[in-house]
Design a protein that fits this description.
2 domains, mainly alpha
Amino acid sequence: MPISVNDVMQLFCHLAQQKGMKAAVKHSGRGALVAGATAFVGGLMGGPPGIAVGGALGGLFGAWMTAGQFKPVPQILLELPPAEQKKLYDEAVCIIRRLDWTDIAQLTSLVMGSASLQQQLTAVLINYLSKELSAEIQYGE
């Protein structure tokens, strides 16, 4: 049966929900920009000591800003643009294309009944989240 992107996203959402996966997408560029801007302003206002103080305060503020706010992985997956969902879909299809199923409920049941399939698909999901989105992953409710 042809596998749709939506079916694969639903499968990943179910898998992530069962494992209690949450992720925090890091925005390190934004933090670096804040740290650099405050160091610059500090330098303008206080010379070399101002650069040090501005950089320290900006670094703390930038770190606080970028400290990940964990969101459920299913929410992150559903908010992905179609091109990103397609990337994840392409990797998952390599694992599930040989399965015999008629609807998403049966596919989900097949995957959840196999520790090996769960492990493979979880690895795809974790790899995608950490490599493509630079996300930190957390487990549990």
